[in-house]
Amino acid sequence: MEPTFVLDRIDAGxxxxxxxxxxxxxxxxxxxxxxxxxxxxxxxxxxxxxxxEPRLARIFQLGHRIETLVVADLKRKAQxxxxxxxxxxxxxxxxxxxxxxxxxxxxGQIALDDRDGAEVLILEVKxxxxxxxxxxxxxxxxxxxxxxxxxxxMMMGMSGFRRAYFIAYCKNDSSYHDEIVEFDQLxxxxxxxxxxxxxxxxxxxxxxxxxxxxxxxxxxRDACWASAGVEARCMTCAHACPTERGGWHCAxxxxxxxxxxxxxxxxxxxxxx
Length: 273
Ligand code: SF4
Ligand code: SF4
Fold this sequence. Notes:
Order of helices and strands: HEHHEEEEEHHHEEHHHEEE
Oligomer: single chain
CATH class: Alpha Beta
Shape: globular
CATH topology: Lambda Exonuclease, Chain A
Number of helices: 9
Largest sheet: 5 strands, mixed
Structural class: alpha+beta
Number of strands: 11
Bound molecules: iron/sulfur cluster
Strand order of the largest sheet: 2-5-6-7-8
Mean pLDDT: 96
Helix content: 25-40%
Distance between the termini: 50 Å
Radius of gyration: 20 Å
């Protein structure tokens, strides 16, 4: 039986939502797992994302809903103390460097009781399909999902926490698995060097061609290889450099970048390999 027109309408709704989405303009912990320095530079400068297919967008949406469910299980079933919002702001926990050019958000903070007494750790929640979840159970997060491991390291590096509690929910059968991840100063130092390159305009593409396997799943691929959809603004301009206070400086006219592009705007491009 052929499906009805309704499914096309659902997908059309997702495509319409994508048009309204604005890319974030900072280097975030969720992106540090990318192997590409250019990806960090494009994120910093708010280059647009290649929109995900509706099916992928629904997977992300489901992931967010599952996160809420997992936090509720931790609080109500496991009776853990979880702060999923910063009590000072009422918003998601956020840590920033350089006036917001570098940012990390947390799913929460959790008090774990252990032999040393209650300790507060970063809480990070992920949902996984069965194959992915099996890998996590067998190998541990550092080996099974290096991107998530890098994300946790950056979160710890920026916030000062030295341990993180990672919990995964299997979407196929609702099983749980978890792990406590320790801070690794060497990983954080390497991340700082990568961030430095993105800030200084020294970021290089990880690949020599858009057909490279690492580019296929990269959300910046259209902006990266074809400057597609890039809005003319100071932060996307090759002459703009990030400042320590979260703003931009125009090297062309040696003045604070006004934000709106001028006639000397030239699109920023990461270094080719
Ligand atoms: S498309 Fe490839 S080279 Fe470009 S930012 Fe993404 S991973 Fe890096
Ligand atoms: S003022 Fe013009 S040249 Fe300077 S950063 Fe903005 S767009 Fe670029």
